[in-house]
Specification:
The chain has 304 residues and is α/β, with parallel strands linked by helices. The protein has 9 helices and 11 strands.
Length: 304
């Protein structure tokens, strides 16, 4: 009659070694144990299963039909157990799992492709799910736990429940229409735009950039003359491309294919003309998020 049996890893390993060696003495030697305890373990296993696993003879043992089948399943059990342990360790170490990443639109063209490529090579067990939204929305979704990690451009003051880390700095440049009198310049002083109409970032939607534009122009000795206001970078680009006005925008946007716009570097070293790219996550971010942060930091250090 079958009884209860505790299929421990050690017991399954003992059974498999006996099945492979077909001899208790050799199996015991291989397992670094004496023969009597090994024989007793196999007998307990047989009693617990209610089947005979080996035919015993003077020259050794031979697995029965039930023993042959059980050997296959025992190996699968050990492999599954090893995989489960390894998977838990990989998840704990940030090597496997799902990470939900939020970002603002334009960043997807400069920073995410490199991160996705390197993560696929170095952390193939991670699956990154991407979500595009405004800076404020991404920050709130990270705070609430809907997202795990975010990449933002100069976010407004963050909730104390979040932590941020700068991983790249971009220079502000003048965005002017093609054919503009300054479009062919190698660089200009900001005060050369004092008589231009501007499309300005909305202070509610893009608070940091809006403040930079105002303070930068004030430092240059003028207040920007407002022609229009836009609440995202694509809106700002569209107004400049229309030929109606100029704007001040992060210089990396020159790589964003919008016909009709020329980016002209601004001369000087004012810190007001720098814009930061930051990562945002919760203080208790798991190991997978920390691994991705290591990758993006390393990528930007290599690109510097």
């Amino acid at each position: 009659m079958a009884g209860d049996v505790n299929l421990t890893r050690r017991l399954l390993e003992q059974f498999l070694v006996v099945a492979e060696e077909r001899h208790f003495g050799r199996a015991a030697e291989r397992l670094s144990m004496s023969q009597p305890p090994l024989s007793q373990s196999i007998q307990r296993l047989e009693r617990g299963l209610g089947v005979r696993l080996f035919d015993r003879g003077p020259g050794g043992v031979v697995p029965t039909a039930a023993g042959e089948v059980f050997a296959v399943d025992a190996r699968r059990l050990l492999d599954a157990q090893s995989a489960a342990v390894e998977r838990a360790r990989r998840v704990a170490g940030g090597l496997e799992g799902d990470v939900r990443v939020g970002y603002v639109s334009i960043l997807s063209h400069h920073y995410l492709p490199g991160l996705l490529s390197v993560a696929a090579k170095e952390l193939p067990g991670l699956r990154l799910h991407l979500h595009q939204d405004s800076s404020a929305a991404v920050a709130e979704m990270i705070r609430s736990g809907t997202l795990d990690l975010g990449f933002l451009r100069d976010p407004s003051p963050l909730s104390p429940e979040l932590v941020s880390q700068e991983f790249a700095v971009e220079r502000i440049a003048a965005a002017v229409p093609h054919g503009h009198r300054l479009a062919g310049a190698d660089g200009i002083a900001l005060d050369e735009l004092r008589d231009e109409d501007f499309v300005l970032p909305d202070a509610g939607a893009l608070p940091v950039l809006a403040q930079q534009v105002q303070l930068g122009c004030h430092e240059a000795g003028f207040a920007p003359r407002t022609r229009a206001v836009a609440d995202d970078l694509t809106g700002l680009l569209s107004y400049v491309a229309s030929g109606l006005c100029v704007s001040l925008l992060p210089e990396r946007l020159r790589d964003f294919p919008v016909p009709g716009i020329t980016f002209v570097p601004l001369l000087g070293d004012s810190p007001l003309l720098n814009t930061s790219i930051v990562s945002v996550c919760r203080p208790d971010a798991d190991a997978a998020v920390l691994r991705l942060l290591e990758l993006i930091t390393r990528l930007q250090a290599g690109a510097a």
